[in-house]
Write a structure and sequence with these properties.
CATH superfamily: Divalent-metal-dependent TIM barrel enzymes
CATH class: Alpha Beta
Radius of gyration: 19 Å
Number of helices: 9
CATH topology: TIM Barrel
CATH architecture: Alpha-Beta Barrel
Helix content: 40-55%
Structural class: alpha/beta
Length: 289
C-alpha cells in the first residue's frame, strides 16, 4: 500500500489550469482544488496582464508542470534549450515537479499530436538516455506519462513491459494516466486493470483523469473534452484500492461545462480518495482483545 504522502509532489485532488477557465477561477478560487497543473510551454515568458493572472494562482496553490513538446522519443536532437527554459520557469515560480509524455510529437517540425514510440529494447535505451539527459539539465527527477495511441508501430514488447523498462533504465518517475489506460485497453483489447496493476508503485507521483470521445464500441479518442467516463471512475477506484489515495489531477482542455460541474468531478475524486484512506486505516487498526 501507499507510503507517507511526502513521497508525492502534491496531495489531494487537482485541476488543470486552462486559459478558458482562468477568469472564472479567479472570481472565486475553489477550496476543493488542492493543486493545479499547467504546460510550461504555454506560460514561459508570458508577462503583462496574463502573467499576473498566472501569478495569482501560483501564490495560492501548489503547482506541477506537464510538458507538451519535449518530444522525448523523437529522432531529432533533444531540445535542451527548452529544458533550460523550463528549469528557469520552475525556479521563478517555485514549482518542483515536471513531467512529459512517453511519446514524441515530431522530428524537424512540431506535429501537435502524440506519436507512439516503438515498443522495442532499442527504443527503451534511446528514450532512457534522453530522459537521463533531461533530468541532468533540469537538476531534478522528472516523470513520464503513459499516453494514448491508436496505431502501434512495433509491439515486440507489450506497452506495460516497455513502460516499466523505460522507467527502470532511466531511473525516472511515472505520471499514471487512468483515462489513457481505459482508452488503450479498449482500442487495443487488453485488460485495463491488469495494466494498472503492472505499474510500479514506487515510481508513481500522481494520476491524471480525463474524459474521452466514444467513436465506436471498440474505438475511443482521448480528447479531454468530456466528462469522465464511468470506466475511468471504476479504474480510479481500483487504483486507489491498490496504491492508496494517490494525488489525482482532473484534465479538461475544452468544451468546458459550468464550473460547478467541473468541480463536482474534483469533489468525486476527493470522495474516492477519502474512502480509500478510510479503508487503509481500517485494515491498519489493531484488533482489540
Amino acid at each position: 500500500m501507499t507510503e507517507s504522502t511526502n513521497r508525492y509532489p502534491v496531495s489531494g485532488a487537482g485541476l488543470g489550469l486552462r486559459r478558458g477557465l482562468i477568469d472564472k477561477l479567479m472570481t472565486n478560487p475553489p477550496d476543493d482544488v488542492d493543486f493545479m497543473e499547467v504546460a510550461p510551454e504555454n506560460w514561459i515568458n508570458v508577462g503583462g496582464k496574463l502573467g499576473r493572472k498566472f501569478r495569482f494562482f501560483t501564490e495560492r496553490y501548489p503547482f506541477v508542470l506537464h510538458g507538451l513538446s519535449l518530444s522525448i522519443g523523437a529522432p531529432s536532437p533533444l531540445n535542451e534549450n527548452l529544458l533550460r527554459d523550463i528549469r528557469a520557469f520552475m525556479e521563478e515560480h517555485g514549482i518542483d515537479f515536471y513531467s512529459e509524455h512517453l511519446s514524441y510529437c515530431g522530428d524537424d517540425g512540431q506535429l501537435y499530436d502524440l506519436m507512439p514510440i516503438p515498443f522495442t529494447e532499442e527504443a527503451v535505451r534511446y528514450v532512457a538516455e534522453r530522459i537521463q539527459r533531461a533530468q541532468d539539465i533540469l537538476g531534478r527527477r522528472m516523470a513520464v506519462e503513459n499516453v494514448s495511441y491508436y496505431t502501434p508501430t512495433d509491439t515486440s514488447m507489450t506497452e506495460a513491459a516497455f513502460t516499466n523498462a523505460v522507467l527502470e533504465e532511466a531511473d525516472c518517475d511515472l505520471l499514471l494516466d487512468i483515462n489513457n489506460i481505459v482508452v488503450n485497453s479498449i482500442n487495443h483489447q487488453y485488460d485495463a486493470r491488469e495494466f494498472m496493476l503492472a505499474m510500479p508503485e514506487k515510481r508513481i507521483k500522481y494520476f491524471h483523469l480525463a474524459g474521452h470521445y466514444i467513436e465506436a464500441a471498440d474505438l475511443r479518442i482521448d480528447t479531454h473534452g468530456a466528462a469522465v467516463d464511468e470506466q475511468a471512475w471504476k479504474l480510479l477506484g481500483e487504483a486507489y484500492a491498490h496504491f492508496g489515495p494517490v494525488p489525482t489531477l482532473l484534465e479538461r482542455d475544452f468544451n468546458f461545462p459550468p464550473l460547478d460541474e467541473l468541480l463536482d468531478e474534483v469533489r468525486q475524486i476527493k470522495a474516492l480518495q477519502a474512502s480509500a484512506a478510510n479503508s487503509i486505516a481500517d485494515v491498519a487498526e489493531p484488533a482489540h482483545g
